[in-house]
Amino acid sequence: WRLKLTTAKQSQRGSLIQGEQGSISRTSMGAREQLTWYTPLRKIWEIIGVPIWLTMRLLYHIRFNWLVKFFGLCGFAAFLSPAFLRIAWFYYTDRRVKRNLQYGSAPRNRLDLYLPPGCAFDIEKTEAAVRAADAETDAGRDPAPRERHENGGSGGGRPVIVFVTGGMWIIGYKAWGALLAQSLMKQGFIVASLDYRNFPQGTVGEMIQDVGCGIGWVVKRAVALGGDPRRIVVVGQSAGAHLSATAILRQAEWELSGYGLASAWSPSSLAGFVGVSGVYSPEDQSLVDHFHRRGLHREVFHSIMEAGYTGARAEEALPRASPCAILRDQAGVPGLISRQPPVLLCHGSADTSAPPSESAKFAAALRAAGVAEVTEKYYPGKTHTDPFVTDPILGGHDALLEDIVAFVRKGEDALKLPALPRLLPKPLVDIARTMVPF
Prior knowledge:
Shape: globular
């Protein structure tokens, strides 16, 4: 798995080097030439053919209770649709949202940028700034020192959030983060919401590769976007929290060992990691059993985690995709733990999809490994979707939003956030909560 990942990253490095010479696509790295191979036929294949092909592959894993959950999800979405339509209108019409920017060469390597007033994205200027910064680095100068301010000061730019959505590793999509991104943008944050390959288009190793590549893309362009390179925080939700945490831990290994694109970014350049309703120990058999009971069957989970359909390689594959197991392996290795950023773990106490014990377990593993700054937040009575979906729709004071903002702005004067507007009446939201399959 590591060899495959390294080979893919080295292949991407070759593309990056070509891009800095001005020979790759404008959408990927900012060269003048548009994708000449991006023909109408290929466009049709990506829009129609790929979804059909992936759906046919996924049908192999379908079980009856998946259909029940699908209809539950449809009911959940139907009752919340007036709010979702308002969010979709913002997503597709607001000029501050820059959609479908390509950050890598693999399928679904795209992200959305949410830019507050005073920030802009010009692809030519951004890539020129990146090349100039790389030249400074190659010359032995640091164009934007990334050490954190002792007093938590801003350094003149906006905070930058890299958001990685969830979706059981199967139905994740960057637009799922639009509601949270809109709220963070109103607080003056730059938000980059990442897409990554879902199963069966990719397995966990490729997802981790995508997330790491996306984080690196944002880190290298933070200053050019108007962001503060000292205040870049990765926020992962559900499966996205698992992938983000694993990508950050693996990146420390790759940086120390010189794998592939390890030089593109360092975990020590991050101001923090926020895990929301995440899972962090896929090697734990009790978690696998829990997922099986909830409808994510062992065969599917093992296939996602590269353990084989029957789980024949589970003993080898699951620990290497486990943040908790990686921390146990890294404990005592010089330079690895010191590269880890501060961590905030948020979880609803009534979450039946991703047990809140997962956040507690990960927090304990982080502290045992020697990570100094680890904070846990548990929301009483909240389910898997409440902090991320239904609470913001209900409006008022959003606990998750306030915790993320306080975590990013730590060291600054406390600022009470204004109440969010209510997007739907509470009875409709309450009915929707009874139907959600997660």
